[in-house]
Structure formats: C-alpha cells, structure tokens
Amino acid sequence: MKPFQITWKVEESLEGQLLREFLLKEKAISRQALTDIKFNGGSIYVNGQPVTVRHVLHNGDNVTVQFPLEEVSEHMAPEEMQLSILYEDDHFLVVNKPPNVTTIPSKYQNTGSLAQGVLHYYQSKNIGATIHIVNRLDRDTSGIVLIAKHRYAHSLLSLQQQSSQLTRTYSALCEGHPIREKSTIEEPIGRKEGSIIERCVRKDGQFALTHYEVLKKYTDFSFIRLNLDTGRTHQIRVHMAHIGHPLLGDDLYGGSTEKMQRQALHSTTLTFHHPFLEKEMTLMAPLPDDFLQLLQRGE
Question: Looking at the domain that runs over 168-266, which CATH code has it been given?
Fold first, then answer.
C-alpha cells in the first residue's frame, strides 16, 4: 500500500519562510502530525530533496510531504458490505448509510458496522488508510456519512466543523403538526440522570441550536427539514421530543413505532469546502424506502 503524499508550490509572498512555519500556519498540519512524520516513517522534501523543518523556503519551491502509513486497529475486523458511494476521491469517501447499521463498532455490537465495511473496501482497492469518520450517525439514522481517507484530511475537516463551515441538512417525520411552520429550538442538552444513552433538555447541559421547517403535513405527522448549528448527541431527537413532536419510530424519546420501526431521521445533504480541490462541495442522499413508502401513502 502506498502512503499518502501531497505537494505544494511556494508562493512569492512566502519567500524566506521556514518550512516549519509553512506547514503549521499555511497548511494547518498539526505539531503532532509533524512529529509523527519525523519519527514514524514519513518524509518531507523540497524540490525532491529530503530536508528538515528548519529549511528556508524560496519562491517556486515544491514542498512534498509524505505521511506515514496508517495502521488499522486490530480490534476492527474488515467485513464485506455493499456500500452506496455518493462521492470518492483520493482524500474523501462519502457514503449513504442505510438504517440499522452502526457507524463504528462498539462493545455491544462489534460486527456489521459501516466502518468495517469501509475497511474491507479500502483493502479491496489497495488503499492504505484506516477509518476517519468525520460525521457519525446513530445506528437507526440513515444518510450521508463523510469519511476522510487520511489523518490530514480528517484534521482539516475537523477545523471546518469547529468553525461551522461543514453543514448538514436532515429530513425527518415527526408526530403531529408543529404550531410554527418554521422555527428555531435553542435548548441545552445533557445526559439524562440514570442513563448512559438517553439525553434530555437540562439547564446545565451543552448549548444546542436546531432549525426546522415543516415541508408538508399529513393526517397525524409532518414531513420536516432540519439543520443544526451544533452537533450534540441525539440533538434533533431530543429537541423535537421537547417541543412535543418526537420523531416517528423513536420510542426512546416517546415516538410511536406504529408507522416506522426506527427513528424517522435521514441525513439528506452535506456541504463542505474541499481543502484540496479548493471548492465547495454539496452531496445529497435520496430519501430511503421507508420514508418514501410512508410519504407516498399520503396518510
């Protein structure tokens, strides 16, 4: 397997800059990553020659960083899985996760995860990477999952998440009809006392902000679109239950399973700035069959 490497051309404005500063400030490579490159099999070249980070750069220099090969955790066994790939390049893999599939294995369910399916795919394509999930989805939530193919891509997308440059839109089916067609829910979320899984709105919780819009009303449920300014665990599920409209199928938060057998939540669109192609990317995942069947019945 080949290690990931990337090359940049030094601009005139950076004439005389130390290579260390170029990598840390201009390219957002972390100090930990530089240490990893130095001691774990990576390399740095300027114009094809190996150098140290104390090298002084000149206009037009080509800087190449070769990152160390990544080791796959021995606790994550690859498993063959049919992946619905929405987008792929040398840096990212975007898949449409089906419901009833965990994003990563856990001590309670250590097989059948999306991460294990992606590992198998990497091996079949001779891609020397381990798993870097940018946005996780709950087991029963379907839709877009963005996966970085190397640590550097993951760190750049993590910075975008922190600065709200990475945005997601969700589709959901909630019980009843919200009074307001379009509104914002701003309520802090924390762990529910006595539970390691369930969350709730509580004064000492973390700040959480959810925007929703009703797209269509049916007899006893609504089709809604949501986007988040924060990414708290179970945020949409907790906020919708808090205003009296839990998601269909979400029995953890009071939703009925009569029409849906899982929480009716789907990650529909994902927008991020591609740091290597230098352009904005928007990916879309079509609604899953269980959503479509219920919407088409028009009950």
Answer: 3.30.2350.10
Active-site annotation, residues: 138
Interatomic CA distance for residues 85 and 243, integer angstroms: 35
3-state secondary structure 97-163: ECCCCCCCCCCCCCCCCHHHHHHHHHHHCCCCCCCEECCCCCCCCEEEEEEECCHHHHHHHHHHHHC
Q: What is the rounded CA–CA span in Å between residue 115 and residue 267?
A: 17
Q: Which helix (H) or strand (E) holds 46?
A: strand 43-46
* The two three-digit tokens of residue 124, written as one number: 């079949």
> Model confidence over 220-277: pLDDT tens digits?
999 999 999 988 999 999 999 999 999 999 999 999 999 999 999 999 999 999 999 9
The residues spanned by each domain of the chain are: 5-66, 85-166+270-297, 168-266
Fold agreement (5-66, 85-166+270-297) = no
For 32, 94, 97, 240, 254, the CA distances from 263, given in Å and listed in that order, are 39, 22, 14, 12, 10
pLDDT at 1: 63
Read off the pLDDT of residues 284-296 as tens digits, 9 standing for 90 and up.
999 999 999 999 8
Domain 85-166+270-297: give its CATH code.
3.30.2350.10
Q: Which among 273, 267, 237 is positioned nearest to 158, based on CA atoms?
A: 273
The single residue listed with the structure tokens 């290597």 is 276
Class of domain 5-66: alpha beta
